[in-house]
Structures are given as structure tokens and as C-alpha cells.
Amino acid sequence: AQSVTQLDSQVPVFEEAPVELRCNYSSSVSVYLFWYVQYPNQGLQLLLKYLSGSTLVKGINGFEAEFNKSQTSFHLRKPSVHISDTAEYFCAVSEPHDYKLSFGAGTTVTVRA
Amino acid sequence: DGGITQSPKYLFRKEGQNVTLSCEQNLNHDAMYWYRQDPGQGLRLIYYSQIVNDFQKGDIAEGYSVSREKKESFPLTVTSAQKNPTAFYLCATMGGTSGTLGFFGPGTRLTVL
Fold first, then answer.
1. Lower Cβ count inside 10 Å, N or C end of chain A?
2. A45-83: per-residue pLDDT in tens?
3. How many angstroms separate the CA atoms of B38 and A103, rounded?
4. How many angstroms separate the CA atoms of B5 and A111, rounded?
5. For the CA atoms of B113, B89, A24, A95, what is the dihedral angle to 10 degrees?
6. Cβ-based contacts under 8 A for chains A and B
């Protein structure tokens, strides 16, 4: 069975500064990896996903993530954040063809002016 | 306009009552899921269904029941056996050409009075 650890529960950051959200996973097989964003009292929106191929994945809203198999990590980055990026971010993993997502506990990003 | 509809958005229940949360989708996705979200715990899988008339327990199925009589609908009943039902409930579907795109509904916040 797979599991996900998000290493930071809260990340405060100033507007226009870069941000990195850390995610490590454990699995005995190959995996699919995802990052989702959740705004208050809303559902989750898919930011980006890694299925195979290039380890650098670009997503919506200027986010990108890099899959590192040797370190079993899938960290999310954005070079310059906006106030509107204030939200909770979830890393998730699934096994190919399993279709069940396992989620990390989430990282709350607060962007300050 | 394709998507997932969850109703109601807010739901209040007295102890000892069963309540049913609605989830409807017009994405033509085969797989549907129910997750429970509690602060600081990420999302936990309650039940999932990959085809009509079939469903499986997730990690925290006790005190919950589901049905899948139609492809478009996957209602979740929170029974009186669920000891701590106050939470945010999210319905999701899985589909798309790669079979790994996760779409989430807006959620239902259930509060037990």
C-alpha cells in the first residue's frame, strides 16, 4: 500500500516570493502522483499530475513539480506567488490502474502582501 | 457544462438520525468515490464504485453505506452507527483518456447537533 507525507503543515510566504511544498511518498510499485489545491469550503482542483515520461511536470496557475524516484519525492514549486494562491494543497498518490488516491495531510499556504 | 454536483452544501443532523448526501455527475465517468475530510488529516476514502451495481469499502467505511444504481449517481448515507460524522464530505469521479484524472465535487459539510 502507498502512503504520502507532506512535510510542512503550514507555509507562510510573501507575495511575489517563491514557494516550495514538499511531498514524499512510499510505495512498493510504480506510482502516479498528483497535486491538488483546495480553496476554503470548496472541492479539490487538480493542479498537475505525473504519470510517466518527463520528471518535470508543469501545471495550471504557474505551478510545477519534479518527480524524483530515488528520493521518492514530488515537490511542488511556484517561482512567484500571488495573494490568490492562498489555499490548502494536497499531494496524492495512486498505483497505475488502481484509481484509488491516497492523500497527504495537506499544506496550508498563506500569502501575505 | 460537465461536472459533479453535491447536495446539500450544508447539512445538520441530530444524533441518531441517518442522512443521505447526494452526488451526481454528467462526466460519463465510470468510477466514483466518497472521501471524508477532517482538519489536519487530509482526505480518507470511505467507499468507491468502479461500475454500476458494484462498490467497495475504503479505509473508513464503518457507519456509512452507498448505492450505485445509475452511472450518474452515487449517494452516501451516514448512519447513526457513525460515531463522529461531523466532517466535510467530498465526492469524486475518475475518468478521462488516461483513466487517472480525478474530479471533485464542491463538497457537503455535515454537522451533528
1. C
2. 999 999 888 999 999 999 999 999 999 999 999 999 999
3. 12
4. 30
5. 140
6. 62
